[in-house]
Amino acid sequence: MTTALQHLNLQTRLKAASIHLGASATVAALTALLVFGLWFPYPYRELAGGRELFLLILGVDVVCGPLLTLVVFDPRKHRQELVRDISLVALIQVAALAYGLHTVVQARPVLLAFEADRFRVVTVAEIDPSKLEQAPKGLRTLGFTGPRVIGVQIPKPTDSDFMSNLDTAMAGLEVTFRPAFWRAYDEQRATVRQKAKPLSMLKQTHPEQTAVIAKAVAETGLAEGRLRYLPLQSRRSANWVALVDHETANVVGFAPVDGF
Question: Alpha helices, DSSP H only, in the chain?
């Protein structure tokens, strides 16, 4: 009789843990869809970071919740006690998920900035929110729907504050991270077209990457002759290029190829 009761108890625990696992997996899938479909679209999940830590937290969250349910769920417990224990497990899961989302929100890319002769990915963590009011109107908020393409005004040697800006950049705070130097992308489209290079140069420099380049070109839906490229970098990587429509200067694609 005792063995039969133990077996029934184990079956009940496993059923409760399985239900919890299904619910956790559903929440994890929806959360991942939000993060990687909206905040970290390709290729920013490779360039901006945050993905690995979030996936680790999400994985632990999905596994640990059902395991804790397996441990604490006991049909012999009083209903009030059982509800308390399961609520505590759910609270732990929610806290872990909230921490993971907070990490991703801080790491999310918000700008794709044209910087003299290249594009740079800028994340929330690289921007001082207290300086956002220094940006031009229309660029003073950080969105949640993927990076916005902007331009950056590069200081000139003839500027009165050139040396102080140079010192700040040498200290690690480049102008791209400083809202006062942000500009509407439309103001720099002509410069983008001027600085962008033909894909033939990229193929000549990296003949081993011809297939990768061809795939990226095909994904744009444009003829190769209409495309140009510029180096694309972030704090994590400099081995990418942005593909640019030479007629409009719009960024239309990306390829994991060193553009420098």
Answer: 2-34, 44-47, 51-72, 79-107, 162-170, 189-195, 199-205, 210-220
